Amino acid sequence: QSHSHRLQHDMYFLTSTSRLNEQVVDKIILQLNRVYPQILTNEEAEKFRNPRASLHTRLSDLLKHLQKKGDRHCQEFYRALQINAEQLFNDLPSRKILKTSDPTEIDTDKEQYMLNDRGPVFFLACFSMAAGLALFWYCCNSDTKVVGRARRILGFSPIIIGRHVRNICMLYLEDISRD
C-alpha cells in the first residue's frame, strides 16, 4: 500500500481532536521544510504554521497538500510523525493493518500468552513432582547413612509435602532399612 493511500486512510484519525497538539504539528512542518529534498517550501510552511487558522484546518490542508504532491512527500510526513510523535505513529490505523496483514509473522504478544497459558499452579505442580522424584531417588540409595538423613528431612516435611506423601515415603524408608 502506498504512503499516499495510507495517509488518506489515516487522515480522520490524525485530524480528530487532541491527537496532535500545536507544538507537534509545528515540529512536523518545520522538519518537512528542512529535510533534503525540501518537502515544503518556506511559503507553504508559513501557510501551514499560520496561528490564525485552527489546528484542525491547518492539519487537514497539510495532509491534502502532501497527498497531491505524491508518495515521497507522504513518506516523509510519516517519518516526521514517527520522530516527533512516536506513540501516535504506532497507533495509526494503517500501522495496525500492516502489523496484522502478514500471516507468517509471529505476534509476540500472542506468542507470549501461548507460552504462559498454564499459569503458576502448573509450574508449582511440575516443580513439586521434580522435587519429589529427586527426594525419592536420594532416599533409594543403598547407603544407610543416607536413609538416616532422609528420615530426619522427612520428619520436618509436613510443611513441604503433603501428609499422605510423607507417610508413603516413611513406610518406604522403613522397608529399606529392614533389608
TrEMBL record:
Report the locations given in the UniProt record: Endoplasmic reticulum membrane; Mitochondrion membrane
The organism's place on the tree of life at top rank = Eukaryota
Q: How does it sit in the bilayer?
A: Single-pass membrane protein
Enumerate the InterPro entries for this protein.
Answer: CARD, CARD19, CARD_BinCARD, DEATH-like_dom_sf
Which GO cellular component term is one of those annotated? mitochondrial membrane
Keyword field: Disulfide bond, Endoplasmic reticulum, Membrane, Mitochondrion, Transmembrane, Transmembrane helix
For this entry, list what GO says about its biological process.
regulation of apoptotic process
**Subunit structure, as described in the record:** Associates with BCL10 by CARD-CARD interaction.
Q: Which protein, by its recorded name, is this?
A: Caspase recruitment domain-containing protein 19
Q: Which organism is it from?
A: Tachuris rubrigastra
